[in-house]
Amino acid sequence: MTTLLPPINNKNGRSNLPSYAKNVQEDRPRKNGSSRRDKEITEEHQHLQELQRNLTKMEIDNYRNSYKHTLCLEMLREGYHLSFRELFNLVRQQLEEREAAGPESFMWIQTMLVNEHEKLDTIRFFLTQAENAQRAGVYEDVYQSRYELACYFQKTGDKWLVDHFFATCLDTANLVVSDGGKMKAEAHLHVGMALEQNDKNLQAAEHFEAYYKLSKEHKDEWLIQTEEGLCLSFFADACINLCRIYTTISDRLGSEDMEKSLGYLVMAFDKAKESEETRLEGEAAYRLGLEYHKYGNVDTALVHLHNFYDACKRADDKEGMGRACDAIAKAYAKEGRKEESIEYLLQFVQTAEERGMEAEQCRAYHNLGEIYNSVGKYKEAREYFNRAYNTSRAMSDTAALQMNRVQLGIAEAHGMLEMYSTHVVQGDRTCLLRIAEWKSVRNNQFYKPLPVLADAAPQDIASSLNEEESRDGEEVEEAHNAEEEDTVINEQATSHEVEETG
Amino acid sequence: MTLNPLAFPKGVKYLCELCQKPAYMQCTQCRVTYYCCVEHQRADWIGIHEKICQTLMSLRKPQPFLPSHEERKKWADAIAEEKRHMIDLTRTTSRKLLFEGKHEQSVPAAMQSLRFAIEVYGLTSIELVPSYLILGESCIGLGKLSQADEYLAQANWTILKTPNSSKAIQSKLHRNLGLLNAAKGDFPEALRQLADDIYNASEEYGTDDIRTSGGYFHMANVFFRQGKRDIADSLYNQVTDIWHTYLDRIVKCRTQTPPTPRGVGPGAVEKLEDKEEGLDEAQEAEAVQVLNSIYDMQEHQPIYQPLGMAKVCYTLAMLYFVLHDIKKAKEFGRKAVVASDNSADDNFSRNIVEFMKICERIRYVLVSCSALKYNHLNHYTIEKEENYASHIRKQQCQEVT
């Protein structure tokens, strides 16, 4: 069997080759010419292979796996398993949130953390740094790393990551004992801020309270540089934050739970007092005053509002003074002390005019007009309503414009009512003529002195007019109103048309 | 029972169950397994045959005559189902033996599982991979590294050829590769493989699952051997934490007062038992091995760390509690109490004390029951045990009166 196979190694050369192989052998010399080129090609090939060295297993894995996979492997290989755990869970958390948000959530459009390589790298860098520090037991450094991460994500606008890293900051800060709780206080502040931005006000308030308590003992030692270059103590900062958060909470509570919201405002006021910031204190007092006013407790409201007024006066804050006057006047009006009310309103008008604040001016005029109207000084009322009307027209504030216009009408009607009724009562020719004149062309001549009653007016005219003019003053007012409203409605209609065509 | 190969029917060759050489022996109980020598029979008996002897009989007997196609199909399905069940059983057994450190004994079971898997799924299926992995691991344990390499390479190839193979199996493969490399002394490569294991396991189960903790543990061992103590310590802590949380949940689940079952009958009882999560045999063995070695590590630390020690002891105590070894549980509980005496964490020590109380209670119940030769307690929760104890006590009173 074996003899049939050609020998593999043949020293003698071609003699033993089978017949079909001989041709190939003979072809060789011919091929030699081209073999140089072959050689060149193989050499080049080898050279290229040398240049492109074999890939290591790690490189193959890098090519096969996702970016996150490679990153995680590197972290684990270096022994940073806690960092791996945190990063991995963060990525997973985001994906789960997206799943939970449903298919219509906008999260499907946004780039996920998995695909943002720069952010992943940053997280890895700082977390491994933190883990190193943690192993060494230097919690200050851990805190610093985490804080920097939070700041980084604040810049990139990833809210949830900021929250996460501030929360872990707080956890770390709880372990730091060397600085008497300064880091803890800071961490509480950051977490509180983050929670506040997430609309979790009550939880935020808790953290701010912790911050307040911690900073209370170190009022003068712990200072922060604000952006304006001022030095602010942690304590004052805590007070300011607390004041703000309490106010927000009470705003949210609104009218649902009056007592609670009032309680929060009182707390805010206390904190504002402690912060020793005049302006803040004044504002808190103002809000408290308004709330008391709303609640019906006018005396307390007045006390707080006067506080605010004084504070503004001391700080020479015209705008604040204006607001204070406005609120005080309202409170007085509610109590029924119209003179004081008018006095403060006049002051309000004055400040508003000085400052050239049109909206405030308009409101001041309006309020004044109303007060005068209620005391029966129609002339002044008319004047102020007129001013209010003009200002609001200048501001092109439609709602105010319409209201002031109606009010102006009412005031005018009130002013005219007296003379008109005397005319009706007297009922002689001149009077009737004037009434008829007014009726037809709205020419007001009632203010002219009445003629002395000499003879009876011609009865025919009187009788002919009597039927029409026997309405009383109120009807006149109504008519006037109705007319005004008509124009208003017309105007609205035209404005709607304009809007539609526009 | 000795056999003479010449007496076999013509054309039939019986081969040894372990080495595939001509057989001279037969198992007298099932009469379907053959061995070449007494040693192999003994090894197989200890490894797996004891558990599967009866089942093998039913599986290996020839197909009975079944007239209709449906019946034949049904019979085949039943056999396949049975075989699948056998795969699970043999794998768990061999894994358990592995964790107990009995590498030699785990081989027969692993071989058996591989054989069943080939019968059910064919030669190239990914279902064979777990068996390959177990074989590889036992080879590592026995020091036959080249053979282990072969098995793992086979597994690796199968996984690579199967698109979308599950992360769980990949993690296991990487774990074994990591162990192999660690055994070879190639630590960087071992770390790379173990890192991949942890990553894949985390993808599958989450970072804080007991199935991920194995990777952490092996990684810690590698770092330990490299001399990086701080990293190893932090990893050991992580492993302890994972087990601690898990066991704590189980203990809480078992000791809480079960809500009064609505309705009477077996349905209500079943519902109660459903809720309870447990450990399978392999996991139990893994937990014992892992936690005990961490305990040893803590004990031999140059610097005594009371907190770590207390935690390990407490976790071990809970583990033995779950395994119904109350004596050991108490022993470790006491150690945990001693270790946590000086620690600042009040909550932790309070937990331990509470746990010790539960142990006391259980012990009392066990003693009072064992006096009455009641041995089937293990499957009952504490509440049931107490009920039973009070029941027995009543009976005693009646007998006395």
Question: What features would you describe in this structure?
Answer:
Chain A: One of its GO terms (biological process) is cilium movement. Chain A: Its main location: cytoplasm. Chain A: InterPro entries: Bac_ResReg_Asp_Phosphatase, TPR-like_helical_dom_sf, TPR_rpt. Chain A: TPR repeats lie at residues 362-395. Chain A: Residues 1-18 have a biased composition (Polar residues). Chain B: InterPro entries: TPR-like_helical_dom_sf, TPR_rpt, Zinc_finger_MYND_domain, Znf_MYND. The complex is a heterodimer of chains A (502) and B (401). With 502 residues, chain A is mostly helical. Chain A has four domains: 57-178, no CATH class; 198-276, no CATH class; 277-336, no CATH class; 339-446, Alpha Horseshoe (Serine Threonine Protein Phosphatase 5, Tetratricopeptide repeat), CATH 1.25.40.10. Chain A has helices at 19-51, 57-64, 67-77, 81-101, 117-136, 139-156, 159-173, 182-197, 201-216, 234-253, 258-275, 278-295, 298-315, 318-335, 338-355, 358-375, 378-395, 398-426, 429-441, 459-469, 473-501; strands spanning 223-225, 231-233. In chain A, strands 1-2 form a two-stranded antiparallel sheet. In chain A, a hairpin with a 5-residue loop joins strand 1 and strand 2 (231-233). Chain A starts with 18 loop residues before the first helix and ends with a helix. The model of chain A is unreliable at 1-29, 453-479 and 488-502 (pLDDT under 50). By secondary structure, chain B is mostly helical. The model of chain B is unreliable at 263-276 and 373-381 (pLDDT under 50). Among the domains of chain B are: 1-61, no CATH class; 228-255 and 280-373, Serine Threonine Protein Phosphatase 5, Tetratricopeptide repeat (Alpha Horseshoe), CATH 1.25.40. Chain B is globular, with a radius of gyration of 25 Å. Chain B has helices spanning 38-60, 69-99, 103-121, 129-142, 145-161, 167-184, 187-205, 210-226, 229-255, 266-275, 281-299, 306-322, 326-339, 346-370, 382-400; strands spanning 25-26, 34-35.
